[in-house]
UniProtKB/TrEMBL annotation:
Subcellular location: Membrane; Mitochondrion membrane
Protein name per the record: NADH-ubiquinone oxidoreductase chain 3
Main location: membrane
EC identifiers of the protein: 7.1.1.2
GO CC term, one of those recorded: mitochondrial membrane
Gene behind this protein: ND3
Stated role: Core subunit of the mitochondrial membrane respiratory chain NADH dehydrogenase (Complex I) which catalyzes electron transfer from NADH through the respiratory chain, using ubiquinone as an electron acceptor. Essential for the catalytic activity of complex I.
Alphabetized GO MF terms: NADH dehydrogenase (ubiquinone) activity
InterPro entries: NADH_UbQ/plastoQ_OxRdtase_su3 (IPR000440), NDAH_ubi_oxred_su3_sf (IPR038430)
Transmembrane segments: 56-77, 84-106
Alphabetic keyword roster: Electron transport, Membrane, Mitochondrion, NAD, Respiratory chain, Translocase, Transmembrane, Transmembrane helix, Transport, Ubiquinone
Organism: Potamilus alatus
Family according to the record: Belongs to the complex I subunit 3 family.
Membrane topology: Multi-pass membrane protein
């Protein structure tokens, strides 16, 4: 029990020391017009830094994140599939999850979010 308390205390102390070191090293001593400018590539900014972008790119990024998380959630299930310890409820949950994801793809396809010609 004493070793556990000592390791917890050392972990908290190490975290606090790293926090203080990060705060100390993160303070910027040099600040000027170039550093506070939105562009740091060597020339003065001409237009606004707030350039509008297509929402299609944002939607594609959201779809990518959703299906990336889906892969992360499916990977442990695929690893267990070969084993004998996956029960019928696990197969039902997996089937429901896959049907839900497939329904999302169909919805995005019908909505036209996956079309890039327009």
């Amino acid at each position: 029990m004493e070793k556990v308390m000592l390791s917890m205390l050392l972990s908290a102390l190490l975290g606090f020391v790293l926090l203080l070191v990060g705060l100390f090293l993160g303070v910027s001593m040099v600040s000027g017009r170039e550093k506070s400018s939105p562009f740091e590539c060597g020339f003065d900014p001409i237009g606004s830094s707030r350039v509008p972008f297509s929402l299609r790119f944002f939607l594609l990024a959201v779809i990518f994140v959703v299906f990336d998380v889906e892969i992360v959630l499916l990977f442990p299930v695929v690893m267990v599939m070969g084993g004998y310890w996956m029960w019928i409820g696990g197969y039902l949950v997996l089937s429901f999850f896959l049907v839900l994801l497939f329904g999302g793809v169909i919805h995005e396809w019908r909505e036209g979010s996956l079309e890039w010609e327009s």
